[in-house]
Amino acid sequence: MAKRSFHGYGVDERGQRMIGKTFPRTRPREFVANLPAGTVAIEACGSAQHYRARTFRAYGYEVRLIAPQFVKPYI
């Protein structure tokens, strides 16, 4: 998650890219509400991400919070 934007990146079970979109930070709910439930990984760097994790869980997602040093390969 960036300061002003939300980057959604999705892969299938084989690791092939399925989704790659950037949204204003205020719209991640709209992004996840229209996708089938699955696993979401979020960089765990502040309390805002824990809020987002609770939001995603409410939509039926399994949420994994990962340390910032492990996020770099996905950028």
Briefly say what this structure is.
Strands 1-2 form a two-stranded antiparallel sheet. The chain has a two-stranded parallel sheet with strand order 3-4. It is built from 2 helices and 4 strands, in the order E-E-H-E-H-E.
Q: Could you give the order of the helices and strands?
A: EEHEHE
Q: Classify the secondary structure makeup into a structural class.
A: alpha+beta
- For the residues shown, what is the average pLDDT? 78
**Number of helical elements:** 2
Low-pLDDT sequence parts: none
Q: Note the beta-strand portion.
A: 25-35%
For the record, the count of structural domains works out to 1
Basic shape: globular
Work out the helicity level: 10-25%
Number of strands: 4
Q: Explain this structure to me?
A:
Helices cover 24% and strands 33% of the residues. The protein has 75 residues and is α+β, with helices and mostly antiparallel strands. It has one domain. Strands 1-2 form a two-stranded antiparallel sheet. A hairpin with a 5-residue loop joins strand 1 (5-11) and strand 2. The N and C termini lie close together (11 Å).
